[in-house]
Write a structure and sequence with these properties.
This protein has 120 residues and is an all-alpha fold. The protein has a single domain, classed as Alpha Horseshoe (Serine Threonine Protein Phosphatase 5, Tetratricopeptide repeat), CATH 1.25.40. It contains 6 helices and no strands.
Length: 120
């Protein structure tokens, strides 16, 4: 698939991750949109991986938006075939999240503990 298609998917991914980071899960009307954005991001990550676009996608680990970075990190590890260097950088992003004051910090901490158990 052409590179411009990968770039369009990445643009959509950034849009969804940014929305997900700012949306309120306390607003019932937003919950469906939040879940839809999450599902869309998972599908985009899988499509990009199948298109051999993981290296381009991994640049999102350096994105200025923390939600984009963290979603990228989790998807690179859980859904994509990333190399050792990229996986290490993704883990660093997740560790940064776990050590932050974000509402997602505790979930990232638990995820890391489970990851370390299954990937010693």
């Amino acid at each position: 698939m052409p590179k411009n298609q990968i770039n369009k998917l990445i643009e959509e991914y950034i849009e969804m991750a940014t929305f997900h980071g700012f949306a309120s899960s306390f607003d019932q009307a937003e919950v469906k949109k939040i879940n839809k954005a999450a599902n869309t991001m998972l599908k985009i990550a899988e499509v990009i991986d199948a298109m051999s676009g993981t290296q381009v996608f991994s640049k999102l680990l350096e994105h200025p938006n923390s939600s984009v970075r963290s979603w990228c990190a989790f998807n690179l590890i859980e859904r994509m075939n990333s190399d050792t260097k990229t996986t290490k950088r993704a883990l660093d992003v997740i560790k940064e999240l776990a050590n932050s004051d974000s509402v997602d910090a505790y979930g990232a901490e638990l995820w890391l503990k489970q990851y370390e158990k299954t990937n010693p």
